[in-house]
Structures
1.
Amino acid sequence: MSNQIVVPFGPQHPVLPEPIHLDLVLEDERVVEAVPTIGYVHRGLEKLVEKRDFKDYVLIAERICGICSFTHSVTYCNAIEHIMGIEVPPRAQFIRTIWMEYSRMHSHLLWLGLTADAMGFENLFMNAWRLREEILDDMEATTGGRVIQGSSKVGGIRLDIPDEKLGEMVDHLKSIRPLLEESNRIFTHDQTVRHRMRGLGVLSKEEAWDLGAVGPTARGSGCDMDVRSTGYSAYGELGFKPITFPHGDCLDRCLVRSEEVLAAVDLVERAVAKMPDGPIEEKVKGNPDGEYFAFSEQPRGECMHYVKANGKKNIVRHRVRTPTFTNIPPLVKMLAGIELADVPVVVLTIDPCIGCAER
Amino acid sequence: MNEQKHTVIEIAVTDLLKKAEEYHTKGHRLVQIGCTPLGDRYEINYTFTTAWDFESLRITVHDGDEIPSISGTYWGAFIYENEIHDLFGLSVTDMNIDFQGHLIETRVPTPFKNPPKVTIVSKGGDAQ
Amino acid sequence: MPLFTMVKRALANVTGKPATLMYPATPAKQYDVSRGHIVIAIEDCIFCGNCQRHCVSQAIVVDREARTWEIDRLRCIICGVCAEVCPKDCIFIEPDYHPSSVGPVVELVQGPPAPPKVEKKAKTEE
């Protein structure tokens, strides 16, 4: 019987972009149990809804997360629009979808870079971030912000994208597509990547379903689960198909994201081709009264915004269930039984975003 | 507009474990557990789904009530139940992993139940 | 075969231009819609305080008596909601960023003195 020791991992660790603390119970080099602690960046944004106008709160909802920011604001807007019965014009829905797909591309490229960095593949890291910069440039040119877009509002969007700019965006995506395919090929075939990630941190399909894994973590385990297939915003008209991989190890979670970048490029191209004309916002009158659970697919997985309002300017309760939060139990399961040296890579593959998880 | 189907079923606190067990045998996954403070009482929603037809069990509790934990059925439920305990100060019994208030370590204990005082920024800014 | 790819990549990296901008020498990228910092045309301001009420980060303080408009640059999140709600459209977003600082940056803008009140002339028809 060997002795057990506890190794603290985080909240500050070179591989972690955000503060999560794990107490790893080790037996020799093997992790027996992992106990997560969060709470280092709790800002109480859910509580702030009681102090701010529900229309201004969109901008705060967007700042829940620094990466999947736009999707948060759209989901919050969806919830309010459903409660108030506002019909958002189709052009606004399509442009929202385009921006959501852009944020998915930039989030996934950021994550792919971080993963490459975590396994010491510096060249791939810089390559991925260089591609991400191209995406961010288009985001800033259309919305005014690189990662915090702030262009969604209750009832529509704040800024329109002119048709010429939409054409330029598609041309730009076409020009970087070969580079994205090249980086995808490296993640799929490169020996370094395969060696580091194949068979590591396996989460079976049943476990993923039972523990409530969402997003690429679930799709990497073969669960066909993607809120975009319910067709919110304009996804219903774009013909969407979820990407799944069967093995449930780190490499498959990585490949899901890598493939989704290319799928996002396709979605943007289809959305631009079908772009309707018309107004971009609907007038909002009165205050919301009622409750709604709005779901959306963020780069990290399924996200839920629950809004309960009572006909006043301030909302009673806004509850956000972010994908990272629900991915923590699967992470704890994945960590049990792996080597200490593999912990950073496995933690990274759920794409932890603690700012999101704590709000 | 795309409506996602969502049924809310109000149940008594004592039925919760039985109902959760039923959902588990039917193959539902746990989507979320969320708490809503409504003045003197709290509403807790337990959302389950198989595909995209969501179903929520809703229980109403008061300060000092004990909520049974469903983490015996759904292993991953501990994260939500600890969150409810840490933010709202409600006690959840028999959790499989009980952090005893250390999952979300905030400076102000139970910040959503006893919110810290809000200060209004005066002229000249407050950055020192 | 991988060797050729590698040599090609290496040559391209040696001979090509750097992918990054040489920042202080070359100015940072900017677009017309970029949100850089907030400015006010104080002569049009009516000191209604709408921007202060809607500011999500409480960065703006408007004083109607002293006719001042004050912004805390470190609190401001440049969301642009003040520019949207301004009834006189006198708040703008400039695309260039505010210079970095090491201490609190609170900018006070003093408005012009209030125009003399137009006395209501009692119309007398006699």
Note: The mean pLDDT of chain A is 84.
2.
Amino acid sequence: MTKPFQNPDQPARLVVINAGVSDPSSTRLLADRIAQQSLDRLSAAGLTTSLAIIDLAPLAVDIAKAIVAGFPGEKVQAAIDTLAGADAIIAATPVYKAGMSGLFKSFIDLVDNDLLIAKPVILAATAGTARHAMVADEQLRPLFAFLRAVPVPTSIFAAPEDWGAPELGTRIERAAIELTQFVASGVGRAITNAAWDGYQHQFGGNAAAAERSAADVNFDTDLMRLAAGGTTRS
Amino acid sequence: MQFGIFSVSDVTRNPLTGTTPSEAQRIDAIGQIAKRADEVGLDVFAIGEHHNPPFFSSSPTTLLAHIAARTERIILSTSVTLITTNDPVKIAEDYAMLQHLAKGRVDLMLGRGNTVPVYPWFGQDIRNGVALALENYNLLHKLWRDDVVDWQGKFRKPLQGFTAIPRPLDDVPPFVWHGSIRTPEIAEQAAYYGNGYFANNVLAPNFHFLPLVNFYRERFEHYGHGSKEQAIVGLGGHAFIARNSQDAYERFRPFFEGNPIYGSSYGLEEYAKNTPLSVGSPQEIIDKTLSFREAFGDYQRQLWVVDAMGLPLEVALEQVELLGTEVVPVLRREMAARRSPGAAPAPTHQSLVTAKYGDAPARQPTPNPNRGDNLTGARPYQDTDLGVAAKLPLVG
């Protein structure tokens, strides 16, 4: 029972997930540059935009508590709701010990499997050395593949030397153009609208199109027939 | 509306004394808790089913039969009976037997259970959990209603010409609640059969279970059992009560913070504010419970956990006492005052007997003679419907 996802007349909602913890944080700086470039490109494409930033550092304790308790508190729930409403995402993490930050992964561990389906994402990572250059593609990309999100072709990685190199700006531009094309074409929305029933969902979940009442539920399944006194003999 | 207590039967270290009760002590204690609940006028006592330490209740019907013999009025129930890993044939027999012994003071709540290894220990696969629950209940429903059952399903060996004995008391099956915290298929089954739906209302944010409860209400109406507001809804909860709020928090804190499930996440105040956990004076427990009704609509059964987290027996008994004397009498009054005239009363054996027979006498199944092969054939009872043609298994 597919239902329309978002009103195309509404602004394109860009959401940044920032796992950088210092202030100022180079991860947040990178995310801001990507966000600004993306907003400019989206505007140039004739779209109205809005931007929300989820800084994970102030949520660190709440995220840990949510993992242990099995359910999020108010602040983490608000972050999840913001993410559920995103039309495009910028996911930015520092590299610690050759991998994405534990805080970043812990936050992602709290989102429903269907929360980010077909949402375009720019993957971004910062590190103290260029040796970690593949973390975005080798760790973030598979993670977002599991979530059935749509990472854009260009990931952004910044080591200290990149902050003085014009090529970083070029890559950011490229990623922003890619993201803009995904958003402007509405392909994420089209995929979700066409294929939503084919993914597994949790009743009452956080996804924008989660089933919340009988009108949303598909009763034409083996289990629903069994629930209504029928049989399955496969 | 019914009010009572439910226990998961945990055997937990008392963080104040550092000692853990033995299984023997906890089994003895739960009998005393149930007895006190009966004495102070609570309506329901329910016990869980587990098959691993640190829990003690593996055999709810044995325990409940014992409690039935020691109590007068209280309804005995489960929280939950595992509909996935138990043979529905044995559930049909055990709970019908219990129903006779308790003179009808019995119902049960069915659930899938939350302990993964229980499935393989009982020869099942958790990946089939929902399908097992649904199919097993379909069979259980039939076993309690048809004297002679021919049946074939996916999970259990087929049955031919089978009669579950004893037949339910007065030929009226125990009322069934379907417990679920996330699965619309379970709520759908409850709605399809016109059975009750119970949300445990613990370990989750406030009103987290509202979409499922509303789904069940909608489907209950869809299947023609009555309006949405006549659906049979039960809610759990967890309570710690003291004379005043400050004492309640002070006394409960070490048990909450020392608990492996609760103690390492949200603080007690935050947990009590954002989840259905009720800590405080009797008035605070009353107010919080009334907020459940505010959100979920009129409902039929409210149960609280009062004996978990290593609380010593005397404290658990005090909780039961405070519920029975200070909280529930006010809640009965306040809930009744707010109740919509259309809301259904809570089902009891007596109400089900009346619904089935009116003023006529209830059926009392009386077997036909043994044919010499320890069977009574296609007509097991003297009044069995002649239209039933059982397919008996071929032997030899």
Note: The domain at 12-195 of chain A is CATH 3.40.50.360 (Rossmann fold).
3.
Amino acid sequence: MKDIRIIEVKQSVFASNDKRAAELRNELKEKKIFLLNVMSSPGSGKTTTLTGIINELKDEFRIGVMEADIDSDVDARTVSKLTGVEAIQLHTGGMCHLDADMTRQGIESLEDKDNYDLIILENVGNLVCPAEFDTGAVRNMCILSVPEGDDKPLKYPLMFEVSNFVLINKLDVIDYFDFDLNKCKENIKYRNPNADIFEICAKTGMGIKEVSDYIRNLIYDWRK
Amino acid sequence: MHELGVVFHVIDEIEELAEANNVEHVNSVTLQIGTVTGIIPDYLIDCWNWAVSKHENMTECKLIIEKIEAITHCENCGENYNTIIYGKKCPHCQSDNTYLIQGNEFMIKEMEVI
């Protein structure tokens, strides 16, 4: 009979992912690549919003896009068709989020991987799991759309705590929903007093220029 | 669905530790999980039992979960209180100037091996 041993571990489950994410961020800093992680619920308008932002920024920066989904390549094809930039589809194989290693693999498979100024990662549509895993991104952006309701920051606290800036989308339909814009902003600030908030409508283009200018400044700051 | 992804992460780390420690078989793993991590222990155990069956050196490995209560500290009045019941607003002085001191842990505490 073999001896039974107890090995004391005392290690955070997310520790190894956090470490790999920090390594990736350092490498990106050296290469002067800005990685933006975009998170939201399914159907919040991520792809349309990104298309608008990319079209504002593509003349100035070299941009690559990674679309993460459980299956299909609908988003990558849409982005690529509407913007002309390189967009690849990452399949998570049933997983509800991307971690740092999966993000790294995605970057490796971009054609021109070392020569981008901005890489956008469109995370899996979900307000829970993607918030738990640091992808190695420089900034996290969250999109919350009017039909989802102004109470979402209260229900999904971690998502709004880890998001550096939040876009409130689909403002064109606000009159048809019980959505209190000020309450929503208050709820976001309650979770994260440092979050910057933008009001947009991706479909009409409202607010897209302001967000794009903000991202432009973030990119220049990161390169310093 | 989140639990399954988390289980894969835990198993990856256990496999690494098992290799580093010349472990033949892992009999049990003890996790410490805070009550505001959003992890549901029952789901975690179901996913665990399925996932360990795919690993030769972890077959029938038991998952033991120790809960860590969530406690929030109020910067305004200095009191600590139960986060699950009261959330972010201090029940003593109604301040929002509070922060979580424990309850979002997700730790591998120890493993029993041969």
Note: Residues 15-31 of chain A form the longest helix (17 residues).
4.
Amino acid sequence: MFEDVAISLKIAVEAGTPILLASLGEIYAERSGVLNLGVEGMMMLGAVVGFATTLTTKNPILGVLLASLVAALLSLVHAFACVSLKANQVVSGLALTMLGVGISGVLGRQFVGSPLPVRVAEASIPGLSDIPLIGKALFSHDPFVYLSYALVVILWFVLYKTKLGIEIRAVGEDPSAADAAGVNVALVQYGCVALGGALAGLGGAYLSVVYTPAWIENMTAGRGWIAIALVIFAMWDPLRAVIGAYLFGGLEALQFRLQQALFFGYRIPVTLLGSLPYIATIAVLVFASSEAVRKRIGAPSALGKPYFREERVF
Amino acid sequence: MSEKAPKRRLLVAAIVLIAILAIGVGYYLWVYAPAAAAAAKIKAGYIYVGPIGDYGWTHAHDQGRKIVDEKYDWLDTVYVESVSEADCPRIIDKLITEENCDVVFTTSFGFMDATIEAGEKYPDKIFFHCSGYKRGANVGTYFAEFYQLYYLNGLMAGALTKTNKVGYVAAHPIPEVIRHINAFAIGVKEVNPDAKVYVVWIHAWYDPTKAREAAEALIADGCDVLAFTEDSPTVIEVCEEYYAKGQPIYAFSHYSPMYSYGPNVTVSGQLVHWEVVYDDILTKIHDGTYTSQNLENVDYWWMLHEGAVELGCDFGMPINPKFEDALKAVTVTDTKTGHGTMSVYDLVMLRLEQMKAQPAHVAKVENGQLVWELGPIEFDPFTGPLYDQDGNLRVADGVRLGHDDLWTMDWFVDNVVGSPTG
């Protein structure tokens, strides 16, 4: 039983890692006031670039790095449209998703079904992995999971404890005030959107290079959308995103274990189990959509609104 | 001017004219006559649902296409891959009108209605649809069947499991997959009546991510032998990873030779030889046996006897030699055909020979209708008594299930855990 729980937690952490990475990036983009609905597209592009690079160079690190870079470049299209051209962020983000999904499908056609010659091995952390329950659940993973732990802490620290973090939050709350205080609004927003793209690409590459590992068209299968919902679930806080990501990841991976389970003599329908992450996402969106809740949980006030310098504010 | 001049001019003109005509006719004969002589050349078009680089269904069909294409001079082939159900009619039109195909093979269940409609639209062309049940005067059907192989895999799984829990990662809850799971479970039960087969549905034909998660879930629940229906070697790879970690989990490869993905864990598996079916169909079209008028009752359902399928995880390797000793160490008594007590290894070989020796099902035409009759085979896995999960007797002692029962199967035998409705 004990071992069982540990294995379930371990699976939840691994399944949650791509979602966690993508939502960490989206938290930064949204904290700077730019809503990027293109996460799914950027993840998908990251997945195909990461897989193709790893397949041809046999170097997963290079694959993951290139995936982040390419996804960041794609996100700059969104930054250019929304920050420089003040376009509608929802429309631009949706376009980005379609673009990313389409490009990855075309690029990846020749890689469908190719097995990856190199594998990212599991590296248990000596000492820590011997702790009962926690050791197996948290410290018996591949290096990329540890990287995600580090990113959570670093991104949380930067956002709340550094001058840069204050600037990012200020831009997202009130860009004109931040501008008046000498912050380069456009630069901060460009930077945050690019970081969001890089992390979404990293999440996608984790899926295709480490977790599965294989490339299949449409393989992110909605994880990008879950990552966006998770940002609200986490109330724009990198630490809270961890809990949500593992919860959503766990729901997705554990549905296969629950298929065997009987509850009071009844078997839960598989279709219901499969839709649990989406039901949870809708529940969170409904809860977080009211204006009062949004204010209280600290949604960036300027989220989704383009900033026009010198515009009169009433 | 001489009187003769116009005459001579006429003669020259006539000679020139004849020469031009002769060159024209000669050229025509030289260019077109060989084509006319080889009018019996056949062009076959293949429509695939997936990319030929997948590691299962489409790849296997394309291997079959390549083999027959190379074998016969009179045969030309073309293919279109990754065709969606909605695109199928347009691709059929293209193959017939632009590529001038005489025969079109549509290799996915979802192409069934489009194929039937194309058959009506192009009555002088020949169509063959894989895995469907609708036919026409110029539309035949064909399928290579795995249930005998799944049964043989089940015998080995029953002998190898130590936890008495055998896992099955299953694609979609349709009769074909349910039939294969049942055949596998019947094999497990024959060797190990205490073992159960745990089924997890992933609702996809090809999805390595879900296949991995499902395999890990089954292993976490205590399964130590896995079989699957999914078009990637993912389950094998998961088992090989567990083996490397010191927890051996064994597996059976599906559709393609997957031995190289897990040489330490792959016991056996199911392999297909579509070229055997394609060879037969195309030869019969070539020699005039099959025309666009007489395919109404042409249906292939080929198995071990016909050579359309092969037991193993690699061609020519029915059982991974690594597992021979383990399978020889377990003894069982053949209660079904009365050949006495023997090792599981010998039982597998005996059953393989029994099923190869005779056809399991035979197609007959009665009153202009296609009827599948039971073949004169010594042993078939789907022989009663068979009970369902609720303990009801579904097939009486000694009774064999026929084509129609197997193609509409929607219930699990009693040692399967999981829901047949997905």
Note: Chain B has a mean pLDDT of 92.
